[in-house]
Amino acid sequence: MTPTTNDLPVVADLHDEALAARLQALLDDKTKPLGSLGRLEALAQRLGLILGTEAPALRAPQLVVFAADHGLAAHGVSAYPSDVTWQMVENFLAGGAAVSVLARQHGLALTVVDCGVRHAFAPRAGLVDAKVAWGTADALQQPAMTDAQCAQALQHGIDLVRRLPGNVLLLGEMGIGNTSAAALLMSRLTGLDIADCTGAGTGLDAAGVQRKIDVLRRVLARHAQATEPLPALAALGGFEIAAMTGAILRAAAERRVIVVDGFITTAAVLVAARLRPHVLQRCVFAHRSGERGHALLLAYLKAEPLLDLGLRLGEGSGAALAWPLLVSACAILREMASFGAAGVARAAPDPAPTTP
């Protein structure tokens, strides 16, 4: 089965000038100097527009970590062996990873999705079996996925979001080699040179990064005809990136807030936005990571991230760290008093100029 754009969820335009004006008027009438909450006000307005209300409330937030292995990892594009993928999945489920700690701290429901990890996991709570295959193929030799596998991974992401409660999806991922897949997709879909899209990933030194760039340049040449989003995703991507793309499209169609983590999740948003441009209206970009290509990719998407902490862990850790800002932005809209209600005087108008 070859995936086609017609098979994917429809994502409508959220543009609503009247609602935007009402939200801005509400923010301007809060007991504060005009615009003094800075970018928190822009975030509050965005959340109101996504959820279609002047009193946005975030319900049952779902942090989903999509995990898979990559055949390209055999070429030394990561500082860690592929076994770390399944070991970290076990760590997520045991509650010991950074994202596990942050999810607990902030009351976020954490789900781990096996999209294509090279390991057999015992069934348990918090783990979703959506395995397409035991890792993608080596993209230096053949497409990472067949068209049918790509379509299956996309559908798994769509179906997962259908089953999840709430109105917020926070994105996370795990997969040794997936910064390579993200860099490949970024280069192919933006036209930027692969060297500008490629970073250290899990911690390669300068020589390792150069080897990685050389491998990825050869992969791009091998799949020079895969220029459209779905063929590029199949040829260059990973099962977790494809499943994330499907999840993003479904979440956007359902008008959920989509909290985007780092480089790999932003690459999935890039694919989704090339398929359905209005996806970007639903996205809140959590942070600018330390991975080399991420700042360029955010700039390409005209995205303004909330945080810049030099993170490059992935897992959804940046999305979890940004979460309290979304909660605060909604609370400001719903609970902060207006000048009239609080009996607080507004700023005096500027005096009229006097005639000399």
Automatic annotation (TrEMBL):
Organism: Tepidimonas fonticaldi
Stated name of the protein: Nicotinate-nucleotide--dimethylbenzimidazole phosphoribosyltransferase
UniProt keyword annotations, A-Z: Cobalamin biosynthesis, Glycosyltransferase, Transferase
Taxon lineage: Bacteria, Pseudomonadati, Pseudomonadota, Betaproteobacteria, Burkholderiales
NCBIfam families registered for this protein in UniProt: cobT_DBIPRT, PRK00105.1
Reaction(s) catalysed by this chain's protein: 5,6-dimethylbenzimidazole + nicotinate beta-D-ribonucleotide = alpha-ribazole 5'-phosphate + nicotinate + H(+)
Gene3D superfamilies: 1.10.1610.10, 3.40.50.10210
GO biological process, one term: cobalamin biosynthetic process
EC nos: 2.4.2.21
SUPFAM superfamilies to which the protein is assigned, alphabetical: Nicotinate mononucleotide:5,6-dimethylbenzimidazole phosphoribosyltransferase (CobT)
Top-level EC class as recorded in UniProt: transferase
GO MF annotation list: nicotinate-nucleotide-dimethylbenzimidazole phosphoribosyltransferase activity
Gene: cobT
